[in-house]
Amino acid sequence: MVGLHRRVMAGIDFKRLSNGDVLATCIVSSGYYDDKDVGKGGSDDDVLIYCGEGGDPKNPCGNKVAADQKLRGANLALKRSMERKLPVRVVRGFRTSSQERVISTYTYDGLYLVEKHWEVRGDNGYRVFKFQLRRIPGQPALSEVKRSRLEQAPLQYRCVDPDVSGGMERHPIRAMNAVNDTRPIGFSYISRLRYPSWYDPRPPAGCGCISGCAESSACACAAKNGGSFAYGVDGMLLETRPLVYECGPSCGCPRSCRNRVSQSGVKVQLQVFNAGSRGWGVRSPNRIAAGAFVCEYVGEVITEREAGKRSNDEYLFDVGRNYGGGEACEEDSCFTIDAAEYGNVGRFINHSCSPNLYAQNVLFDHDDRRVPHVMLFALADIAAYEELAYDYNYRVDGVRDEDGELRRKYCYCGTFRCSGRMY
């Protein structure tokens, strides 16, 4: 609900007056901390005991900095609202869980008055502020909202396709749908890039390592990467780069080499699922660590000129201008990956203005920097069943049709950084 609570992370929203004083405007009782209702029924259901901000990470409020809570800022704002008998908006959070995920629902519960505050000592002896708030009578009862909206059963996903890849990946990629029984159709699954018949990429010169490229100083492929490997010994991408060279078919090192991370296909379990307004999306039933390889964006490799003729431009990934520092190229020497008719699980990964994946250019089976492999890596730790997304890197008002008219595509990622439009 836009405008009720402005602060992204903090539970107490307040405003600073021109005279320097502060007043609380809204609190969020998320259900994660030691906020609680006093009674089990009757008028006590309208009383909320709320924890202050700041303090000891091991106290009941679950705060992060080990110290006494201070009567300043947000905490002082609640006290000032109590002294002036001014109402405070309260937003309630409720959590329900299914077999696959926890769903948090937030709803506006109405206006409360702060009746009193006091101090307690946490388990480690740090000071914690408690505030007692009472709901102003005459507002719709929260219990009615709970019954009608908050305690409804969470989405139940059903498997509508046991393996979208048709056995072409190491792990089956199930299609899950909680809305209806439809499944992903209209394309042919491929696990490797599909090059045009006239394009004949040549294998690169390889390294002579036979021990898994243990020493970067002695590895010719590491030299291509500036003298160091892009991956740690655990296979995690250490940092994003314009281009990463992996060991290839001409190298003497084994398949277990630390510099062959992304070329062996999908290694994590992935699911395609109905993501509502975003269409089909991709998630994993397992946690994915930061820097881990997720999947390649696979499709047909076509020229930029050919891409302009395709009627469906929803699955185009332009790689033709991403090589060698971004030099200019002609339409027939710039390339695009089109996953509309032929593609892998990467075609279902949605855009986000706050992505958790990064598209990394990688070469291993040839040295043509105009046509790198697009490998998707985790930007940060990704929780189980969190939707996977990367930034499509469109520019608002930067896409035009054949007649030069601006085209618009709206964004539904729902993140707090969402611009509302992809282009």
TrEMBL record:
Compartments (UniProt record): Chromosome; Nucleus
PROSITE patterns the UniProt entry points to: POST_SET, PRE_SET, SET, YDG
GO terms under biological process: methylation
Limits of the Pre-SET domain: 205-265
Domain Post-SET intervals: 407-423
A molecular function (GO) term: histone methyltransferase activity
InterPro entries the UniProt entry points to: H3K9_HMTase_SUVAR3-9, Post-SET_dom, Pre-SET_dom, PUA-like_sf, SET_dom, SET_dom_sf, SRA-YDG_sf, SRA_YDG
One GO location term (cellular component): nucleus
Main location: nucleus
Protein name stated in the entry: Histone-lysine N-methyltransferase, H3 lysine-9 specific SUVH5
Naturally occurring in which organism (per UniProt): Acorus calamus (Sweet flag)
